Amino acid sequence: MKIIVSLVVALCLAACSVVGRSEVEIAPYQVLKADSSQGIEVRRYEPMVLVSTSMAGDGRNNAFRKLFRYISGDNAGSNNIAMTAPVLMAGEPANEGTKIAMTAPVFMSGANSEPRMAFVMPKHFTLDSTPKPTNPDLLVEEVRDYTVAAIRFSGTLSQRNVQRYSQQLQQWITANGLTAVSEPVAAGYNGPLTLPMLRRNEILIEITQ
């Protein structure tokens, strides 16, 4: 079982505070079943657009930087924007890309033997409206019918914690008559200033019922 874990996920949401409060949009989902005794939920996510890049070769920090540059304007700026008045012209027009708000969680997985990191786009983006990356290393894709079992825990996304909670989640999936159809995915929600005991971390495994 390949599980990709990186402390860089702690850098993903700089808008978070030391007390765990996040100011960013969270990918929306519906809870289908909850086991509060183990902190496990079965969820169905709404359709979402992911922008991802490989963590192989250049490493996890470089993968994060590529994605962060993308949402900071390193994209084709393909959004349609309604014209307003007046039109101001001063010298040559700037060719700036579209700035995109960061959302949570940041996904990391090692499916298909290639470790990847993905940012979830804000919910109003579709596959067609998402700005095209200028970096060829980035992949834009839409995810639909994404049903997962998710286990939530605090602390850090250390290798030990990810292995522990992945095993616990897989055992729960089997015991509840469900079938896992993906490798575990680590999801981080908080920034580096958040106290470990107040952080929200999750392991997601796609399932069929």
From TrEMBL:
Pfam families cross-referenced by the UniProt entry: SOUL (PF04832)
Species whose genome carries this gene: Alishewanella aestuarii B11
The keyword Signal belongs to this UniProt entry's keyword annotation: yes
InterPro entries per UniProt: Reg_factor_effector_dom_sf, SOUL_heme-bd
SUPFAM superfamilies in the cross-refs: Probable bacterial effector-binding domain
Signal peptide: 1-21
Name of the protein this chain belongs to: SOUL heme-binding protein
Protein origin, superkingdom: Bacteria
Gene3D superfamilies assigned: Regulatory factor, effector binding domain
Keyword terms of this UniProt record: Signal
